[in-house]
């Protein structure tokens, strides 16, 4: 562009600004914009004043709905201002008066509101950047009315594969709306689970059932919407699904079985979060989370075991904490045959009862007090065992068995009771013959 053309465009811009400043409708539009914002902030102030949930900042541990209400409360004024300016534009269009300044103000207000929405609701950096660098330009072009022109241009860029025509617009639409649906589904799933788990009126198994059903329902809705966006006829898909459903069902049989098993577990309340269980393969741990396909068991050494839900239905399961938090355990030891067993038994009972986590005392039933008995007669000594009851599991921070073995060892040593070494007796049947050799 040469200097003459640049000067001509600059003069035209100055002339348009001069006309706009001297035009009475410009000031009327400016007054409408200012009045819209003043009225919007006044109404928002009254609403937040009368509804404290919208005005008081929640704590970190507050209910998710409480946090959402506070965020919505901060957006009431911009929403009202946008509605008022949009209504003013429609009135101006009806009476055929100028509204270019109103349209500009509305475009800026919508873009700022969308940016505030991203900051408030999108915590992850990657989706936030996608919304800013893709969503904001699309919204800007829509507000200026040039988005349909871009859509037509993208539709003209296409390739044909057999009977299928793939256009640039179709690919862009699937990517944009698919990503949006994925984010909405993930965010809604997290938010919905948090609300369900905050319901104090529901017990833990019921919360898990509702959480799982909510997750599955949301997943189905997202898939159906995505298929619709991709232009797939759901009626045709249903016919096709009926034809291949049996084959797919066989391939997904294990997944379906695990999902249904998870629902059964939650409904019959055989397991709940926090239970300590031991499955048939020997693995044990605390139930931490129920998922669609598996259950997470956390062991005392910090490992997570992912157990398919079907295993809890079909295999043997020991639930240590399902009925009663009290458990019975035993520790074994051996004493020499020369030991006076009866007084030694009373010594061991009294020593074991001194441990703070072992249940003892005259107020307990006889069968729940510490007990010491003979287990068997071994090769080297008398095999004894001590039975005791305690709250919780004898592992991790509640590891009692090792403490009791130390107490038993110290008690035996204090009273000079021998713990025998392995012994073997050798007999010579014909000593004369051995001597002759």
Automatic annotation (TrEMBL):
- Report the membrane topology from the UniProt record: Multi-pass membrane protein
Transmembrane regions listed in the UniProt entry: 27-47, 68-87, 99-122, 134-154, 166-184, 216-240, 246-267
- Limits of the Mechanosensitive ion channel MscS C-terminal domain: 331-419
The organism's place on the tree of life at top rank: Bacteria
Record-linked SUPFAM superfamilies: Mechanosensitive channel protein MscS (YggB), C-terminal domain, Mechanosensitive channel protein MscS (YggB), transmembrane region, Sm-like ribonucleoproteins
Please classify the protein's predominant subcellular localization into one broad category. membrane
Keywords attached to this Swiss-Prot or TrEMBL record, sorted alphabetically, are:
Cell membrane, Membrane, Transmembrane, Transmembrane helix
Which Pfam families has this protein been placed in? MS_channel_2nd, MS_channel_3rd
> Which parts of the sequence belong to the Mechanosensitive ion channel MscS domain?
255-322
InterPro entries in UniProt? LSM_dom_sf, MS_channel_C, MscS-like_channel, MscS_beta-dom_sf, MscS_channel_2nd, MscS_channel_C_sf, MscS_channel_TM-2
**Which locations, inside or outside the cell, does it occupy?**
Cell membrane
Q: Which protein family is it in?
A: Belongs to the MscS (TC 1.A.23) family.
Cross-referenced PANTHER family, in alphabetical order? MECHANOSENSITIVE CHANNEL MSCK, POTASSIUM CHANNEL RELATED
State the protein's name.
Mechanosensitive ion channel
- Species name: Glaciecola petra
């Amino acid at each position: 562009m040469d200097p003459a053309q640049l000067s001509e465009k600059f003069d035209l811009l100055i002339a348009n600004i001069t006309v706009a400043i001297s035009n009475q409708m410009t000031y009327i539009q400016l007054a409408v914009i200012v009045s819209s914002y003043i009225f919007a902030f006044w109404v928002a102030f009254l609403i937040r004043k009368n509804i404290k949930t919208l005005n008081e900042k929640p704590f970190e541990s507050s209910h998710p709905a409480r946090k959402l209400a506070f965020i919505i409360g901060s957006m009431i004024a911009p929403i009202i201002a946008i509605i008022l300016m949009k209504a003013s534009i429609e009135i101006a269009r009806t009476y055929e008066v100028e509204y270019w300044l109103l349209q500009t103000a509305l475009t800026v207000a919508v873009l700022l509101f969308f940016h505030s929405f991203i900051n408030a609701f999108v915590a992850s950096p990657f989706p936030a950047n996608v919304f800013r660098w893709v969503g904001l330009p699309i919204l800007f072009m829509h507000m200026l009315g040039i988005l349909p022109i871009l859509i037509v241009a993208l539709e003209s860029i296409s390739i044909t594969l057999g009977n299928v025509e793939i256009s640039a617009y179709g690919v862009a639409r699937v990517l944009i709306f698919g990503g949006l649906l994925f984010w909405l589904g993930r965010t809604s799933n997290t938010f919905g689970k948090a609300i369900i788990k905050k319901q104090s009126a529901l017990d833990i198994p019921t919360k898990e059932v509702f959480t799982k059903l909510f997750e599955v329902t949301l997943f189905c809705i997202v898939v159906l919407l995505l298929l619709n966006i991709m232009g797939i006829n759901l009626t045709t898909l249903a016919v096709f699904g009926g034809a291949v459903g049996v084959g797919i069902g066989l391939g997904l049989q294990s997944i379906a079985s695990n999902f249904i098993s998870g629902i059964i577990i939650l409904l019959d309340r055989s397991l709940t979060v926090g239970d300590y269980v031991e499955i048939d393969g020997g693995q044990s741990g605390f139930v931490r989370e129920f998922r669609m396909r598996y259950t997470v068991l956390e062991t005392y050494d910090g490992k997570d075991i992912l157990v398919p839900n079907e295993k809890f239905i079909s295999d043997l399961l020991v639930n240590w904490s399902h009925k009663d938090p009290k458990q019975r355990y035993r520790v074994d030891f051996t004493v020499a045959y020369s030991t006076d067993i009866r007084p030694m038994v009373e010594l061991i009972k009294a020593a074991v009862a001194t441990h703070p986590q072992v249940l003892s005392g005259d107020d307990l039933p006889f069968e729940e007090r510490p007990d010491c008995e003979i287990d068997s007669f071994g090769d080297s000594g008398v095999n004894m065992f001590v039975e005791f009851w305690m709250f919780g599991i004898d592992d991790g921070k509640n590891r009692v068995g090792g403490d009791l073995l130390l107490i038993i060892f110290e008690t035996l040593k204090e009273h000079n009771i021998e713990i025998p070494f392995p012994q073997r007796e050798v007999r010579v049947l014909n000593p004369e013959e051995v001597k002759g050799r």
